[in-house]
Amino acid sequence: MKEKLHFNSATIHGGQNPDKAYGAVMPPIYQTSTYAQSTPGGHKGFEYSRTHNPTRQALERSLASIEEGAYGFAFGSGLAAMDAVLKLLKPGDEIISTDDLYGGSYRLFKKIFEDFGLKFHFVPMHNTEHIASKINKKTKLIWVETPTNPMMNIIDIKSIVNLVKGKDILVSVDNTFASSYIQQPLILGADIVMHSATKYLAGHSDVVLGALILNDPGLAEKIGFIQNASGAICGPMDSFLTLRGIKTLHVRMQRHCENTATIAHFLNSHPKIEKVYWPGFESHPNHKVAKAQMKDYGGMLSFITKGANYEAAISIVERLKLFTLAESLGGVESLAGHPASMTHASIPKKVREKSGVVDALIRLSVGIEDVRDLISDLEKAIG
């Protein structure tokens, strides 16, 4: 559909048309590696599925639509999407990112790309002044993650965009924690949006997939070349599942947000809980920024037990029944994690503790179950 749609309609119809072969309403799963040609080069727009696939193409159009972008690219994982962005850079280039970055992103930066000559600076990005202090002539990318994983810090996207205006510096935003329903960084001036679509976009814990969305045609050409040349694409089945997930993104996110708000307030008033990290609290350091750039406060929160007790934290996650102790987030089912030993285990202890990821921290991905059952589960586990 060509006319601009409101978000709740874009999730279902954005960039989509009935299949040309038989009028299928949902794009078929084109489980094929290659396509027949009538003569060398005589094909219908598809010749090899690493380069293009009709199911992946339908997903990429949908991704562009929900982020109000012009171009969408789907990859085999969120880290594969990040890998493509970093391949835009050259040895000697410098990147600034947040000091409480997701562990997998930190590992990719430090253990892979640093060896290829890229230099990374990690600063508390919720204060834009820290970013400004690291910008120099070699700076080529600001990598933003907001809300941050797992400390739920909020980074002011507009302020960063204004900070680098007129400079040859890209602003890329990892929008995984918020999802397109809550936050659309391209509208705020970002150059690139990245998703681990494994999480909220697909939404059912049955897919691993990454995405990039952007507006600039020159940048899109470069990303498209890297996607094809490096080959870290997603398959048609995963494309289909993610496209199906996106169609219910808006209704799922509404319940994720509602449940998380209720649980955040429950934990905040619990006598055995020391601190709750959730941007919906007015006491959150960047609550005003969250309120301005986000539609709601999301489905994630973190908390610490009284006295920052490691043993108490482990005991809680082990006793949970409805919350599953597992990696990942953003599925319909509620998950609990212990970042220090799970998602952020690849970050040195001193580095992660400096950013707040202490051994007693518990992260919750709140699902769409009945919130009364979730609170009951937490009450029993906390004791």
Task: Give a verbal description of the structure.
This protein has 383 residues and is of the alpha/beta class. It has two domains: 7-246, Type I PLP-dependent aspartate aminotransferase-like (Major domain) (Aspartate Aminotransferase, domain 2, 3-Layer(aba) Sandwich), CATH 3.40.640; 249-382, Alpha-Beta Complex (Aspartate Aminotransferase, domain 1). It is 34% helix and 15% strand. It has helices at residues 7-13, 54-66, 78-86, 103-112, 128-132, 157-163, 217-230, 236-246, 249-268, 287-293, 310-319, 349-354, 371-382, and strands at 71-75, 94-98, 119-123, 139-145, 170-174, 192-196, 210-214, 273-277, 300-305, 324-325, 335-337, 361-365. The strands form two sheets. Strands 1-7-6-5-4-2-3 form a seven-stranded mixed β-sheet, with helices on both faces. A five-stranded mixed β-sheet has the order 8-9-12-11-10, with helices on one face. Helix 4 (103-112) links the parallel strand 2 (94-98) and strand 3 (119-123). It is globular, with a radius of gyration of 21 Å. The model has no long low-confidence stretch (mean pLDDT 96).
Features:
383 residues; alpha/beta; Aspartate Aminotransferase, domain 2; Aspartate Aminotransferase, domain 1; 2 domains; 7-stranded mixed sheet; 13 helices
What series of H and E elements makes up the topology? Answer: HHEHEHEHEHEEEHHHEHEHEEHEH
Residue fraction in strands: 15-25%
Please state the average pLDDT score. 96
Structural class call reads alpha/beta
Judging from the principal axes of the Cα atoms, what is the shape?
Answer: globular
**Largest sheet composition:** 7 strands, mixed
Number of domains: 2
Question: In which order are the strands of the major sheet placed?
Answer: 1-7-6-5-4-2-3
- CATH class of the largest domain reads Alpha Beta
Specify the CATH homologous superfamily of the largest domain. Answer: Type I PLP-dependent aspartate aminotransferase-like (Major domain)
- Residue ranges: pLDDT <50 for 5 or more in a row? none
